Amino acid sequence: MVIQIKNTARDLKIRLPDLITRPVGRRMYEKTRKNMAHVTDGEVVLVDFTGVQVIDSSFIDEFLLRLIEDSREAAPVFFVKLANITPIIEMNIDSVFGSYHTYNERRIAVVTESLTAMNSYYIGTISNSERDVMDYLRINRIAALGDIAAFIGMREEDAAPLVEELYALRVVRRVSGESPKRYQAV
Predict the structure, then answer these.
(1) Domain ranges of the chain
(2) Whole-prediction pTM value?
(3) Other CB atoms closer than 10 Å to residue 176's CB: what's the count?
(4) Residues forming a β-bridge with 1
(5) Per-residue pLDDT in tens (0 to 9) along the chain, 186 residues
(6) Span 126-186: which CATH code?
(7) Looking at the domain 1-125, which fold is it?
């Protein structure tokens, strides 16, 4: 599913290129969640920021953080991926995610479609080993837990909690019904 932020903003009569304030974030979130009424289990929701130059911390808190938290807690399970974000949007999201991690003692991360200024395909708090897993899956698309463990130099039983944590963060997908367990990039 693709969520075109500019179309949602237009429907709500919100002027671009900047999306700022909590009320705007709330309205965008509510409209987006209504548009996601038919999202299926395991689906990737691509949030496309084409036409948006800036989003502020209040908007991120009310829109993006809530959407990511929903992906972790609500049924069906879905995965959020960002597209066409500007360097300013990236910087603001990273700042909000860092604050969220500090104050809530919970990590938060999101996958990006393009390489970020930090030379990664995600924004958020991810360890070096977790980053290696995400990069490996991005290149290979899908891999068994044993292959991932071998790549990062861990035993399978040590790699399993790490990869499952990435799944809990909704930055990697679990291939259902397969044995051995297999994972894929978002």
Answers:
(1) 1-125, 126-186
(2) 0.94
(3) 10
(4) none
(5) 999 999 999 999 999 999 999 999 999 999 999 999 999 999 999 999 999 999 999 999 999 999 999 999 878 999 999 999 999 999 999 999 999 999 998 999 999 999 999 999 999 999 999 999 999 999 999 999 999 999 999 999 999 999 999 999 999 999 977 678 899 999
(6) 1.10.10.10
(7) Transcription Regulator spoIIAA (3.30.750)
